[in-house]
Amino acid sequence: QVQLVESGGGLVQPGGSLRVSCAASGFTFSSNYMSWVRQAPGTGLEWVSGITSGGDTTAYADSVKGRFTISRDNAKNTLYLQMNNLKPDDTALYYCASANFELRPPKKNRGYWGQGTQVTVSS
Fold first, then answer.
1. Residues 119, 48 contacting (CB under 8 angstroms)
2. Cβ neighbourhood burial of 38 (10 Å; 0-12, 13-18, 19+)
3. Mean pLDDT in order along the chain per 10 residues (123 residues)
4. How many Cα atoms within 13 Å fall on the side-chain side of residue 52?
5. Distance (Å) of CA 10 to CA 36, 38, 114, 122
6. What is the four-CA torsion angle of 92, 64, 98, 38, rounded to 10 degrees?
7. Residue 92, phi then psi, degrees to nearest 5
């Protein structure tokens, strides 16, 4: 049974940092490109970042470039997103997904998806 379980979300003040994680099981994590996708209230899915299966190449949306860092530990089947200098506009439900959405709109029928972890940036 495929599972992606996100964790680490929470409430943080503007300018603060947070690291979210995604634990994978039931498929060959180390062979899959992985992405982080977010959805703010009342909006559609927005691709945030992606990383190749070996972790050697990463990509970021312009809105988070320079503030967010994606990484993975294939020995632990875990994906990470380190988020620094958070802004209120970063408030969203953050999903991990086993697909590359850098050049196409994210859709939940592509790849495996977790249930998401809520990140709220507010003073």
1. no
2. buried
3. 97 98 97 97 96 96 98 98 98 97 92 97 97
4. 5
5. 16, 14, 17, 11
6. 10
7. -175, 170
Within 8 A by CB and 6+ apart from 107, the residues are: 45
d(CA 87, CA 61): 15
- Residue 76: predicted pLDDT: 98
Strands of the 78-83 sheet, one edge to the other: 3-7, 18-25, 78-83, 68-73
Sign, CA dihedral 3-24-120-58, equals negative
The answer to whether 85 and 75 have CB atoms below 8 angstroms apart is: no
pLDDT tens readout for residues 88-122: 999 999 999 999 999 999 999 999 999 999 999 99
